[in-house]
TrEMBL record:
GO terms for biological process: fucose metabolic process. It comes from the Eukaryota. This is O-fucosyltransferase family protein. PANTHER family: GDP-FUCOSE PROTEIN O-FUCOSYLTRANSFERASE 2, O-FUCOSYLTRANSFERASE FAMILY PROTEIN.
């Protein structure tokens, strides 16, 4: 075997025949390629047979790619502010249905621009509870006709379509994430969140639902981690106001990278949750308080609408947008998370009685800028005598006289010092005016040291001695929480399944409970109180808007999207100033805006506790020290 020769077929053919076969093979290859390159009209209907079916294979590929689409109708989402777009840029009115698939809003894609749905649509969530947990949707053969030819009609050859014009259109979805302030409480972060949502809507950007920070431990006790949006509010409700996406989805779509950061004002470096790559603050766009000029979505669009960065982070969002309509519009679409609603229902039934009418009072201690100066009794006043910078002017002549003299001692702001007896009288009078005998009393005073504890105990005991039922969730020995003499215990009161509740969640339950009251008295300078005021005012305005639409039949009230559009656009036109903190006036006053007055009648049936207990008691035996320097 070692001497055997390997036999090959070519050894039996003469060299001349091998050369001939090679030449014929080369001719066949060149002919086939040449036939394929010629147009069909040159050879008639027999071209497919002449080139051994190569053209049929090509026509199958071209026909499949040009005539088949993903089974679901992925159309573009209407811009929240259609009026700001040119007519040729207005999106399709037949928007992707949020109710039919996911609480997340659909990206703004044109259906004709893509052959498959964008990744953001494939990542939409749908857990049925309005939660924003990210989960990918797998395309099945039933939803993608390009994956199977079974049962399809025979494909015939067709000319290769002419090439499309070489116009590059960026149809990618654009995202905006709020970069919240980690050093402030949940109330301030919520104002940042709301401002960011309005900006995202105005710019037609998808709003990323970033998690909240825990905030200072003095606010809610020691909370290990902040709550997610879906732990606070329903995602599906917010998506009716602006397009939203889960935080995980945004991170994936943006490849964990922020292309730019926008600052409404100079801010400290934020704690970046989830983002791996991002510019420094000194490389960011800084509006330097010029957003104070904004009094409409159109103003936002004029300032930032031309920016092309796909994924941006927005910071410096506190104290928030200048005009009240921004907060009223989004407040109309805030629905508490199902768990918060259920807990509020349980607490209301146990502590108040399901059908009991009650007055809600929020007495905030920590927000007092007076520090050691009579904590819980000292409240800031803006230079026009208002509780907040919205025109709630003081009725006291003493205030206006004192305000003429600038404060030059013990600080830089003016304030009022309340008397506990005036607080009691103001609460009792408000309860009598609304014919209620039950009060839900929310306060952080029991967390503010001996002076705060003493005040809370004295006020609660005094109101009870005056024949009023007072309930609340303080934890003070010797001061029962409920009318049956029992003290609050989360497990016994709310159920064993709620042992994991933290201070932030309990605060949300209380906030929902006070929003249901017949009347509400809040504390000036508190974002917690201001949020309740805005939600309650938004609800009243929504009723007025719907009633007006019923009278003039201008909107089909059976169309939920038409109603949402009417509500949001009407509320956004409220240009009343909505500044919160008096100390920011020196920045906000650089822009002249509509300085309409927000009166007590505008807030009715609600009121500010410190205003009613100070300026409101003048002429009624009040003891408040007006316009004191601190």
């Amino acid at each position: 075997m070692g001497n055997s020769k390997v036999w090959r077929f070519s050894d039996r053919l003469p060299v001349s025949i091998q050369v001939a076969l090679l030449f014929v093979s080369l001719i066949l290859i060149l002919s086939t390629v040449s036939f394929q390159m010629l147009p069909t009209s040159t050879w008639g209907d027999n071209i497919d047979k002449l080139v051994l079916g190569v053209s049929w294979v090509t026509s199958v590929k071209n026909t499949t790619s040009s005539s088949t689409r993903i089974g679901h109708n992925f159309t573009s989402t209407p811009s929240p502010i259609v009026d700001n777009l040119h007519p040729q840029q207005q999106p399709d009115e037949n928007s992707f249905s949020l109710e039919d698939s996911s609480p997340m809003g659909a990206p703004d894609y044109e259906e004709t621009a893509i052959l498959v749905p964008p990744p953001s649509l494939l990542n939409s969530t749908a857990d049925g509870n309005g939660n924003g947990n990210s989960s990918r949707t797998t395309l099945t053969p039933e939803t993608n006709s390009t994956t199977s030819m079974v049962g399809a009609a025979p494909l015939v050859s067709s000319p290769v379509p002419a090439p499309a014009p070489s116009v590059v259109v960026d149809t990618r979805e654009k995202f905006m994430a709020p970069l919240l302030s980690f050093q402030v409480g949940a109330g301030n972060q919520m104002m940042e969140y709301m401002s960011g949502a309005v900006i995202a809507r105005a710019l037609n950007r998808t709003y990323c639902l970033a998690p909240f920070f825990p905030g200072p431990s003095r606010h809610n006790g020691r909370v290990v981690s902040g709550l997610r949006w879906e732990d606070r509010y329903e995602v599906s409700s917010l998506s009716r106001f602006t397009r939203v996406a889960s935080f995980e989805q945004c991170l994936e779509e943006c490849n964990y990278t922020l292309d730019h950061k926008w600052m409404l004002k100079t801010s400290r470096d934020p704690q970046m949750q989830g983002w791996r790559n991002y510019p420094a603050n000194n490389e960011s766009l800084n509006l330097d308080w010029n957003y104070a000029y904004w009094t409409s979505p159109e103003d936002i669009l004029k300032t930032l609408g031309g920016r092309d960065e796909r994924c941006v982070g927005m910071l410096g969002l506190f104290p928030g947008l200048r005009w009240r309509g921004a907060f009223l519009a989004i407040s109309a679409f805030l629905q508490p998370a199902p768990r918060i609603v259920k807990l509020a229902d349980t607490l209301q039934a146990y502590a108040l009685g399901k059908n009991t009418r009650y007055l809600a009072v929020h007495w905030r201690f920590e927000e007092s800028e007076c520090g050691p100066h009579n904590i819980g009794l000292c409240f800031v006043r803006c230079e026009d005598g208002s509780v907040i910078d919205t025109g709630l002017h003081a009725e006291a002549k003493e205030w206006h006289e004192a305000a003429k003299v600038a404060c030059n001692k013990n600080g830089h702001f003016r304030g009022v010092t309340l008397d506990m007896r005036d607080i009691l009288d103001a609460i009792e009078e408000r309860a009598a005016n609304h014919s209620v005998k039950t009060i839900y009393f929310a306060t952080d005073g029991w967390l503010r040291g001996p002076q705060g504890i003493r005040l809370v105990k004295e006020v609660v005991h005094s109101l009870r001695r005056r024949g009023l039922t007072v309930v609340g969730l303080w934890k003070l020995p010797g001061l029962p929480n409920f009318k049956d003499g029992k003290e609050f215990d989360p497990v016994q009161t709310l159920g064993k399944t709620n042992q994991d509740l933290n201070g932030a969640q309990i605060a949300l339950v209380e906030q929902e409970l006070v929003s249901r009251a017949v009347s509400f008295m809040g504390s000036g300078q508190s974002t917690w109180s201001l949020a309740v005021f805005r939600v309650r005012l938004a609800r009243r305005r929504v009723k007025e808007i719907v009633a007006a639409a019923e009278r003039d039949v201008s909107v089909d009230l059976k169309d939920p999207k038409a109603v949402d559009k009417l509500i949001s656009e009407t509320l956004l036109r409220d240009e009343h100033p909505a500044g919160l903190h008096c100390r920011y006036i020196r920045y906000l006053k650089r822009a002249a805006v509509n300085e309409t007055m927000e009166t007590s009648a505008d807030e009715y049936p609600d009121a500010w506790l410190d205003l009613e207990a100070c300026e409101g008691r003048i002429g009624k035996g009040g003891r408040c020290q007006v316009a004191k320097c601190f």
